[in-house]
């Protein structure tokens, strides 16, 4: 698994079935119904977070907190190196006869440096892995999925047969069903 | 609510469970026992190595006597006390007063040495602080301990009410299902304050060395005249000490009562009536304002003035941080206890998780303020403000670092993970440690200033902590029985019941 999660990309996929919804309750119902039948749901796109959807979808907890910890440690070490080089090694400054090594005045810089690296590292890696970083071509299944539509994508080659999956989404309240082959969508 | 969950909001009536009563009783009984044992086994002037050696005795006792008996002779005695370096004079004084001072070493009060401590000329590297404070009597130790403990519980009660208010000001819904818990904790405000007030009323001349200095009434140019204390005497005097905190706490108490009444009115009102909710927001904002700005006065007068030559501009914030994180831990522990007894059915792991986040975050906040207080002095190059830290760092090194370990390192490492914040066991243990740690923090703010070096946390301190703690639990649990446990008519109760922090 690379830094960019290729699993999230819709490229190089076979036939995909797309259900478009207008209501978060319908998405929830469809997700639960599909999962109860044993379907592997590829992804769900919603314009805003829906409470409980990740539980219904069976998403594992992300490792972002580990990333945060590692970024924090990196920042901490970098700042120690920076202060040491500037303030101890290269140009020590005697201020009020205070020592230069590991004094309380290091603490705010260490704190800020750690927080800075954690925040930026986490932010960048989060967007990178979600394929949402600037420069990554977005793959929209529906032009309104960032506005007021919600989209469920499943692979046609699934544990459950196609007709059942489409039927389930339809019953749960899908307003439109499509198939997607090689980036081209056709309304079913 | 589109959360796919159907949660029924039901009112719960709380009755104090047998376990709660037993806990309060045992805590109080053990506390009383420890207090008694601590009080009677304590030697007078306990914990003062070498302070009582030589001529010190004489001067101390003169001061004592003068305070107790003859006001008119006080100045001359005090002057004798200031000539402490000269042993000849002291032995002379000793002869002269030997008879009069033999009785009761226990009724110590006037402490002439304090004045001298800080009256040294400033040397090149800051003032030389001499730790030759006199031994304190049993009563002083008791009153100091009572003050520390009462103040600690006062901070918890005030900060718990602040927690209640913050939810309204921030328009936050998540905590609505457990809002009755901080409201109940706030009912301890008057009891805690009465304890502090008793301790300060009877012990102020012993606990605060500026009180004795004011009593001497020295003029400029006289020996022993202290410029710093004289400059602060408009603020640091018995009138201000006793009146200002009392007035402030009365305001807090009345606002707390008003908020409780609003909460009761909401229960009685029709569902969907948001007028009371809006009124509560206004009162909450008022409390936050009064509490946030004026808590500093209580902290300055009761705690910071123990080291009257020292001052810190963020001492109020520091006290707030201590009280706030402790109150969060107490709220968390009480919620966990109520849940374990089958109450607060609407409170889920999600709410507990958020309380854990609060405890984690504000442990870090406390550390931030803890360091900042020192950092300001360090950066600004004010060696005369080092008195406070020099005393604690040189004579209470173990306590100093223990404080940091208990209040920062432990909660920081344990509560960092999500699983830690969601486990009731981990939260219970960490919460208890945070409470103990901040109790020790308040102890460390006061005791070195009152006793000088060599004081240690004793059975008396621990005993009073448990004794008042038992009373605290009793009062809070009883306050919980007075109204339903769930604010069923609160506009955000549905939102709170469906609270979900995600995977």
What features would you highlight for this structure?
heterodimer, A: 188 residues, alpha+beta, Alpha-Beta Plaits, 5-stranded antiparallel β-sheet, 43% helix, 14% strand, elongated, B: 503 residues, mainly alpha, 2 domains
CATH structural fold name of the largest domain in chain A: Alpha-Beta Plaits
User: How many beta strands in the DSSP annotation of chain A?
Assistant: 5
Q: Mean of the pLDDT scores of chain A?
A: 88
- How much β-strand is present in the residues of chain A? 5-15%
> Oligomeric status of the shown chains?
heterodimer
How are the SSEs ordered, and which strands pair?
The complex is a heterodimer of chains A (188) and B (503).
Chain A: E1 16-21, H1 24-36, E2 41-45, H2 53-57, H3 64-90, H4 106-129, E3 150-155, H5 162-172, E4 176-181, E5 184-187
Antiparallel strand pairs in A: 1-3, 1-4, 2-3, 4-5
Chain B: H1 18-41, H2 56-68, H3 74-82, H4 87-97, H5 112-117, H6 138-169, H7 180-185, H8 189-207, H9 209-216, H10 227-232, H11 238-268, H12 275-303, H13 315-340, H14 349-380, H15 387-395, H16 397-414, H17 418-422, H18 424-451, H19 459-481, H20 493-497
Helix pairs in contact in B: 1-19, 2-3, 2-4, 6-8, 6-12, 6-13, 6-18, 6-19, 8-9, 8-11, 11-12, 12-13, 13-14, 13-18, 14-16, 14-18, 16-18
What does this structure look like?
The complex is a heterodimer of chains A (188) and B (503). In chain A, 43% of the residues lie in helices and 14% in strands. Chain A has 188 residues and is α+β, with helices and mostly antiparallel strands. Chain A folds into two domains: 6-61 and 141-182, Alpha-Beta Plaits, CATH 3.30.70; 64-129, no CATH class. Chain A has a five-stranded antiparallel beta sheet. Chain B has helices at residues 18-41, 56-68, 74-82, 87-97, 112-117, 138-169, 180-185, 189-207, 209-216, 227-232, 238-268, 275-303, 315-340, 349-380, 387-395, 397-414, 418-422, 424-451, 459-481, 493-497. The model of chain B is unreliable at 46-132 (pLDDT under 50). The chains are: A alpha+beta (188), B mainly alpha (503). The interface between A and B is medium-sized, with 25 and 17 residues.
């Amino acid at each position: 698994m690379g830094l960019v999660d290729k699993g999230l990309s819709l490229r190089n996929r076979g036939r995909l079935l797309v259900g478009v919804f207008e209501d978060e309750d319908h998405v929830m119902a469809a997700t639960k119904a599909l999962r109860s039948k044993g379907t592997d749901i590829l992804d769900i796109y919603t314009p805003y977070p829906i409470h409980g959807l990740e539980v219904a979808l069976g998403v594992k907890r992300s490792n972002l907190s580990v990333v945060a910890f590692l970024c924090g440690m990196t920042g901490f070490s970098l700042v120690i190196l920076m202060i040491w080089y500037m303030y101890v090694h290269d140009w020590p400054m005697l201020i009020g006869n205070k020592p230069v090594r590991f004094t309380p005045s290091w603490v705010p810089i260490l704190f800020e440096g750690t927080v800075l690296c954690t925040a930026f590292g986490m932010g960048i890696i989060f967007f990178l892995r979600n394929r949402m970083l600037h420069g990554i071509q977005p793959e929209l299944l529906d032009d309104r999925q960032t506005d007021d539509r919600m989209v469920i994508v499943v692979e046609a080659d699934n544990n459950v047969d196609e007709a059942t999956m489409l039927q389930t989404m339809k019953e749960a309240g899908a307003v439109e069903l499509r198939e997607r082959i090689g980036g081209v969508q056709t309304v079913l | 609510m589109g959360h796919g969950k159907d949660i029924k909001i039901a009112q719960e009536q709380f009755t104090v469970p047998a376990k709660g009563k037993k806990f309060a009783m045992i805590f109080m009984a053990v506390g009383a026992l420890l207090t008694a044992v601590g009080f009677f086994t304590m030697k007078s002037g306990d914990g003062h190595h070498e302070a009582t050696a030589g001529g010190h005795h004489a001067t101390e006792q003169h001061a004592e006597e003068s305070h107790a008996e003859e006001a008119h002779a006080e100045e001359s005695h005090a002057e004798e006390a200031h000539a402490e370096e000269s042993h000849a004079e002291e032995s002379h004084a000793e002869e002269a007063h030997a008879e009069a001072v033999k009785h009761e070493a226990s009724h110590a009060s006037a402490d002439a040495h304090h004045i001298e401590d800080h009256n040294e000329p400033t040397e090149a590297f800051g003032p030389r602080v001499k730790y030759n404070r006199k031994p304190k009597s049993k009563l002083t130790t008791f009153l100091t301990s009572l003050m520390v403990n009462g103040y600690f519980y006062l901070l918890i009660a005030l900060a718990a009410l602040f927690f209640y208010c913050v939810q309204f000001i921030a328009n936050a819904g998540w905590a609505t299902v457990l809002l009755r818990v901080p409201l109940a904790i706030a009912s301890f405000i008057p009891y805690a304050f009465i304890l502090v007030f008793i301790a300060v009323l009877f012990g102020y001349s012993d606990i605060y060395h500026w009180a004795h200095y004011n009593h001497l009434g020295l003029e400029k140019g006289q020996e022993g005249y202290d410029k710093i204390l004289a400059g602060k005497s408009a603020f640091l005097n018995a009138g201000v000490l006793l009146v200002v905190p009392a007035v402030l706490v009365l305001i807090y108490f009345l606002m707390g009562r008003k908020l409780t009444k609003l909460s009761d009115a909401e229960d009685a009102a029709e569902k969907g009536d948001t007028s009371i909710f809006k009124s509560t927001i206004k009162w909450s904002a008022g409390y936050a304002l009064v509490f946030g700005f004026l808590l500093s006065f209580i902290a300055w007068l009761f705690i910071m003035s123990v080291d009257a030559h020292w001052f810190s501009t963020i001492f109020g914030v520091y006290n707030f941080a201590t009280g706030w994180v402790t109150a969060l831990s107490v709220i968390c522990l009480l919620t966990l206890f109520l849940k374990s007894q089958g109450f607060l059915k609407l409170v889920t792991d999600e709410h507990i998780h958020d309380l854990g986040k609060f405890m984690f975050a504000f442990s870090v906040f406390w550390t931030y303020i803890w360091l900042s207080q020192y950092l300001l002095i360090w950066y600004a190059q004010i060696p005369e403000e080092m008195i406070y830290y020099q005393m604690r760092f040189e004579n209470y090194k173990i306590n100093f670092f223990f404080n940091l370990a208990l209040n920062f390192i432990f909660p920081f490492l344990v509560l960092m993970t999500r699983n830690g914040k969601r486990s009731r066991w981990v939260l219970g243990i960490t919460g208890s440690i945070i409470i103990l740690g901040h109790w020790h923090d308040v102890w460390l703010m006061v005791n070195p200033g009152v006793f000088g070096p060599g004081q240690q946390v004793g059975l008396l301190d621990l005993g009073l902590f448990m004794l008042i703690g038992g009373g605290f639990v009793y009062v809070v649990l009883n306050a919980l029985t007075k109204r339903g446990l769930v604010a069923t008519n609160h506009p955000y109760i549905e939102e709170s019941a469906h609270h979900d922090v995600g995977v």
